[in-house]
Design a protein that fits this description.
5 strands, alpha/beta, 11 helices, five-stranded parallel sheet
Length: 261
């Protein structure tokens, strides 16, 4: 058996000293806090005492207003939309959460999870063909789509609009579609860029619920599913990820979601 190859994370010793003095903690614990991004009392308070009210305004995400308006108009006109999710845990979680929430507010919604070998990664023409076959006039991507330039143009030719929700870092160019909701866009000033795909979809659901005056608990009830995406995508367990997963883990322990059990 070959020996293990350890990769030790680098840390800022000056920051560790500052944490140790501010919290009166041993150097070892302060080092862990530094590596977890818990650098001061304000951050520590949010970390140890998560509060739903401390989530950032979803409308701080670029294009969120456009995405919400499109979804609400589809609901009003009783038009069909399709969610296209990636095939990994984050993509399936975000698709599942958004699909169930949309159903609960009477949106005519379907979904498509691509086959890894047949469709490949990201928005595919095959998925768009499926959307066309069921009469969908809007596709919302989850955890993918930020570089789907050709596919989005293909959808347009079929008369299908596209909203991209993603968290992957984009190239210089952004797809030309109704809305691109991604905290990692260069011109997006959202306060937290560490959301996973399920987190971005969760923010969309919260914004839609607020727009149509639906109780936000109708979205928070899916925090357990979003937490699966957060955990599987190994995003930083701070800020909004910490808040969502705190309540999501509680639901996993106490809830009755048969699939998760």
């Amino acid at each position: 058996m070959s020996s293990s190859n350890w990769h030790i994370k680098e840390f800022d010793s000056k920051k560790v000293d500052e944490i140790s003095k501010e919290f009166n903690l041993p150097y070892s614990i302060s080092k862990i806090m530094s590596l977890r991004g818990i650098l001061n009392r304000n951050i520590s308070s949010n970390f140890f005492y998560p509060d739903k009210k401390k989530l950032h305004d979803p409308y701080l995400l670029k294009d969120m207003d456009k995405a919400v308006d499109a979804v609400v108009n589809h609901r009003k006109n009783k038009s069909k939309l399709m969610i296209f999710g990636d095939y990994d845990v984050d993509g399936v979680s975000s698709t599942s959460m958004l699909y169930q929430f949309f159903q609960s507010i009477d949106i005519d919604v379907s979904y498509y999870i691509p086959h890894r070998d047949i469709d490949g990664y990201g928005l595919s023409n095959r998925g768009i063909d499926f959307a066309n076959s069921i009469g969908a006039t809007l596709i919302i991507t989850c955890d993918c789509g930020i570089n789907a330039f050709d596919e989005i143009e293909y959808a347009k030719k079929m008369g299908i609009d596209v909203i991209v929700t993603d968290h992957h870092k984009p190239d210089e160019k952004i797809p030309n579609c109704i809305a691109v909701v991604n905290p990692n866009q260069k011109d997006c000033n959202y306060p937290f860029s560490g959301l996973c795909g399920a987190g971005v979809a969760f923010k969309l659901a919260l914004a839609v619920a607020d727009k149509i005056s639906v109780d936000l608990d109708s979205v928070w009830k899916y925090a357990d599913i979003v937490t699966l995406g957060i955990a599987a995508d190994i995003v930083p367990m701070i800020d909004e990820n910490r808040i969502i997963s705190h309540f999501g883990l509680k639901q996993i322990r106490e809830g009755n979601n048969i699939g998760i059990r």
